[in-house]
Structure formats: structure tokens, C-alpha cells
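Hey,

Quick one before I head out. I ran the complex with magnesium ion overnight. Inputs first:
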Amino acid sequence: MNGLTLQDVVLTYPDGDRRLTTLDRVSLHAAPGTLTAVVGPSGSGKSSLLAVAATLLRPDSGRVLVAGRDTAGLSPRQATELRRDRIGIVFQQPNLLASLTALEQLQAMAHLRGVSAKAGLPRAERLLASVGLTDGRQHRRPHQLSGGERQRVNIARALFAEPAVLLVDEPTSALDHDRGARIVDLLAAVTRDHDTATVMVTHDRGFAARADRTLELTDGRLS
Ligand code: ADP
Ligand code: MG
């Protein structure tokens, strides 16, 4: 199956002499071209769910399939390649490089893939325009952009490799309601345009209605 599939995923963290179950037999399938919202309060396991889906954390048990590929047997290097080529990640903390313009942030992704920054320029410009960064704002550094614009750069950068799976952690947490709503609408649009299987986690139920479907995460259980 294409997109993203989690089957009976269990994740525990060490907790003194015991282990804390953070994901409790979580199953989910996100199809290409759909935006799935996962809503849950702080501490319910949302970021952990994304870390497992991104192959950054290995579950105790259960399976994670990315674009039809079972990730269980991958070496660390293969997992890194899978992340680089198939998975776009928008972390909660904006991790843009302070010294680079928006365009250069995306061109750096080309460089990471062995393509020159110059060769990556047209795609970087196209992607930034598609998230609304035009009129010279593509030449600004992060501190010269608003929080919403920084999040748009983050999203454009995550799309650079044309990933099959897009994982987004609390994209609206630093934004007021209107800007947050526009970011979620943008995620819905890029999901359709790029045919990504997109999973967005949020504690804000108000934004979830803009997704194709909403799942609830409560104490590590998905429903
Ligand atoms: P959310 O993103 O929904 O706030 P998290 O996935 O960050 O939830 O955390 C879920 C639970 O796992 C919390 O109880 C948190 O304290 C715990 N947790 C998260 N990361 C770790 C870690 N590296 N080690 C131990 N416990 C952790
Ligand atoms: Mg979190």
C-alpha cells in the first residue's frame, strides 16, 4: 500500500525501573493525497507517533511502512536515505538556518541531494511561490519573516524532495487563529497538489475540521 501505514505500533520509554507505554497498538493508514489530523492533548504521544512514522524512533513492536516499504529491516543508512527521499518532516520547532534566505534554505536541500544550489534554484523558486512567498520575501532571512511565513518556508522545504509522506508537528502552535487556519488550508492544498500522505498532529481541535479526517490520540491510543 502506498502512503503511510502503521500496524499495531507499540512504543515504550524507560521510566525508572519500568517502561512507560507511549504508543499503545497504534494502527493507521494515510493514503496519498489525503490530510489526516491527529488530535490529542499535550503528552498524549503525538510527537512520538511522528518520530516512529519518520523512522527516527524504532517501535518496540508493530510495523511501519513508508510508500509500501517495510522499514523494520533497514540499516541506519537505508533509513536515512528513506527519510531523505520519501519523507518530508515539518518539526514543531522551526529549524531554519538563521543566516540563509528562504531561497537558500531550499537550495541547501538540493545540495544535500548532490545537486548544485544553482540547479536547484528553479524548483526552490517554484515551491516558495506555491506557498505564497513571492514579491522579494523569498530573499529574506528567517528573522525578517513572520511566524506564518517561516512555517511556509518549512513546508516548502519539506516538499523539496517530492516526498510520498509529509509529517507535520503542531504547525499552528506559534500562530494566531487566522494564520493557523491558513497554514492548515495550505497543508490541505499541498497534500492534493503533491499527492502526499500527510499526517498533521495538533492539540487544537478547531483546525482539525479542515483535514480530510480526524483521529484522536488519548494516552497513546488512537481512535
Ligand atoms: P505530545 O507530542 O502529544 O505532547 P510526546 O510524544 O512528546 O507527546 O510524549 C508522550 C509521552 O512520552 C509523555 O508522557 C512524555 O513525557 C513521554 N516522552 C516523550 N519523549 C520521551 C523520552 N525521550 N524519554 C522518556 N519519555 C518521553
Ligand atoms: Mg509534541
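Residues 13, 22, 40, 42-48 surround adenosine-5'-diphosphate (ligand 1) (CB under 6 Å).

Talk tomorrow,
K.
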